[in-house]
Amino acid sequence: MRSKVFLLLAALGCALTGPSPARAAPARVRVGTNRALGTVTPYVGTGKGFFAARGIALETVDFQDGSTLMEAFAAGQIDIALVGISPSAIWQARGVPLKVVAAANGGGHVLLTRADSGLASLADLRGRKVATPRPGTVVDTLFRAHVARELAGLDPEKDLTIIPGLAPADMPAALLVSREVDAAMTWEPFASQAEAQFRTARVLFDAAAEWRKTHPGGALYPTNVVIARQDFIDRRPDDLRAFLAAYDETVRFMNDRPEEANGLIAREVKLDASTVAAARRRIDYTTRVDVAAALQTLRWSKDLGYLKALPAEAALFDLRYLPPAGGAR
Fold it and tell me: Which range (11-15, 33-37, 76-80) has the least confidence?
């Protein structure tokens, strides 16, 4: 008798409350990256389940280089991208509707030379051959406008022989094996890899170390940022907030638990965890955009003619969708 009462009450309860509401389907967000040390965050966050926990079905697309990534972004094939601050401003100036919505990482650039190169200072670069990556990148503008012009007092077009477009993986061989160049402007983790593999590798200039001398305790100069298409921002602001909340949580995890994070990063970028740990001495992960520092780096692009004018702050940055400060560093 008692069991029949329980069954009747249960049935009555179901009739009154109705069926349980169905859970909303996860929001599909397409993000582009190149699975590099500074842009590996989406892979780490996916592996930790941070995006899924916030209702984001993250579709991460891996591109071989920044140009291909930005072409896909401009064509609307991805919603969000992790890319250099300089290409972001350059492509926006070309008419691609985008905004910087968060930072990704800072620092990491190193000018390498050989122990027997005879280069003891930046001024010694006069008349030498220097390998650099593709023109217009953060690395290229940093070297030409800041290192060569501002610090060494050299005209990069007249006083140096620049070998542009060299892949970072090929720079150590060109510098230390075939000796085709006297120095190479590279970035992490390639700098730490070269130092570990070649006894003759020497650091002539460490951009992160120099930045910390004038910015003690602060974030490093911006390198990569998170950009979003304007139509994605306008049509799906809640999905952007959820993405950035998970992204912020991922960065906090990477900073607060570096040993565990280094293992995950190493697996994603196919490096030893020890190399990742060494490389992280020269980079930082952050979601907070130092707008003044970002505009300072963009002045290098303007000085070199890649940008006709510096973008207005409101035109390039839209930081309203980040979680409140005090989370990710």
Answer: 11-15
